[in-house]
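Field guide to reading this record: the first block holds the primary sequence, the second block holds the structure written as discrete tokens, and the final block holds curator observations. Each block starts with its own label. This record concerns Adenylate kinase 8-like, catalogued under organism Octopus sinensis.

BLOCK 1 — SEQUENCE
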Amino acid sequence: MDATMRPMSLPPEFTNYAEEHQLFELMKFLIEQLLLKKPERPIEFLINILTDRLKEVVKVIIFGPPASGKTTLAKMICEKLDLVYLNEDRLLIKTSTCLLDEAREYQVENKPVPTDLWVRMLWEETERGKCKRNGWVFEGVFSTREAIAKMQQQGIHPTHCIFLVALESILVERAAGKRIDQRSGDIYHMTFDWPLSNDVKANLVEAPGCTESEIIQKYLAYEYALPGLIQRFKKNYKNINADQPKGDILSKALCFLSRKPQSMAPHTPRVILLGAFGSGKKTQAHLLAKRFQLVNVSCSQLIKQAVTNETSTGLIAKSYLDQGLNCKYQKPN
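BLOCK 2 — STRUCTURE
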């Protein structure tokens, strides 16, 4: 490559190397971390990230009306993907002493813990240990657009957002049969998910705040805040119907979480068209090549060229063509 020539053209090997080793994604991740964390020593900060081999992890936040199954889904996702489950109670247990004391002061006075304090506790927890290495699932606490805005300003940006959807009548019915294990905190239901163990049954109690009037009030408040929440996560959210077996809900959630966000990095498109004889593969290949300026590689054309040039592969293909058979793949010597 001659640096004096203009315009300069990069050899294909350069772009192939960058695509193979995901250099564009790496640079995007490093720049994101710089902008979010704003370290005083950026070079040292970047070196530590590369040294610790940190990577972008799955960060999920789950929204939904009361009794829609947010906690159950969050725990199933954590168990399946080895993530950390976070909610209001977990934050109060795991947070540092100074923040915990500050939160306890509000609770002793029967005052709600301010959103700013919840955000600080969540940020502190997501920046250490398994949360930082593996990822996390968060549900509860933040239910307004203003609270989510403060969370994002703090530098907490979920990679995926799940909204559980259900009718009000279904939620009221669910809430009536909701039971909680006093020891483990696991949630069960008298109709849909009754435990088999007698020991667990003996420790079940009615869930607080599950009367019909309370559920309707919470449902209306959630529906009022829902448009603002969706607006905040419009690029990475999914609605899932909560009125179905929890295994189906988990399957749809995992399918959503397995999808990587669309990358803006340049890449070389490689397309394979498969289909039965007469299905229009050649026509579609021609249209794609014309639309996206791709190289149309026809297998039949390659075989004919190899036979005409009498290459080793062409001689093998000719024996099949003479018999009127399709060519079978055989690696040349």
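BLOCK 3 — OBSERVATIONS
The longest strand covers residues 58-63.
The chain has a mean pLDDT of 84.
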